Amino acid sequence: MSERKWLVYLVQCSDQSLYCGITNNLNNRLAVHNAGKGAKYTRSRRPVTLVGVSSEMTMSQALKLEYRVKQVPSSRKKLELTNRKDETIMSIRKELVDAVLKQIKGLTNAIEKMINGDAKPKKAAGKKATKKKSVSKKKAAKRKATVKKASGKAKAGKKAVQKTPEKKEE
User: Fold this and answer.
1) Are 119 and 112 contacting, i.e. CB atoms less than 8 angstroms apart?
2) Is the peptide bond before 73 cis (omega within 30 degrees of 0)?
3) CA-CA distance, 6 to 66, in Å (whole number)?
């Protein structure tokens, strides 16, 4: 049973050429390529930068996809990457705008509730204030008595040690 943890990746070398490979640890593999210990092709074309990565798949599926990618001419791969880059940028911008609008809507609702007196303002997120436990007077007195007893015994012990007569040598 093969787990789905293999990736097909595409890196761009310093000479603008593309290299395709598979891995089950992408960060480590990129570090190996950039250290000059990776594939023979990338050793003399460092540094490499990641330009594409697949979703997780089995090793067999990854090998098949790598083969298909390597069959495509580099000019077509570069064209596809350029087109997808533009789509990705637009997608990211849309996600950011949606997130900002959602935050603004939430803040607007909170302000309206505060104005109408429906809700109290929330405390700022951060460290939670810890409540100090109040100690009853009886417990406090008991603790004080215990401390006094202990210190009294310690003093008595010191006096007892000092009062013991020393034996004189004859």
Assistant:
1) no
2) no
3) 11
Q: Which two tokens mark 126?
A: 């951060």
DSSP 8-state code for residue 77: H
Q: Are 48 and 33 in contact (CB under 8 A)?
A: yes
Q: What pTM, to 2 d.p., does this model score? A: 0.50
Using CA atoms of 149, 152, 156, 162 in order, give the dihedral in degrees to the nearest 10: 150
Map tokens 């109290």 to a residue.
120
Neighbour count for residue 107 (Cβ, 10 Å): 10
Contact by Cβ (8 Å): 22, 9:
yes
Tokens encoding 135: 């100690």
pLDDT tens for the 170 residues of the chain, in order: 457 799 999 999 999 999 999 999 999 999 999 999 989 999 999 999 998 888 899 999 999 999 999 998 888 888 887 777 666 666 666 677 777 888 888 888 888 888 887 656 566 555 555 555 566 777 777 777 776 666 665 555 555 555 555 555 54
At 20, phi and psi to the nearest 5?
-115, 140
Residues in the chain: 170
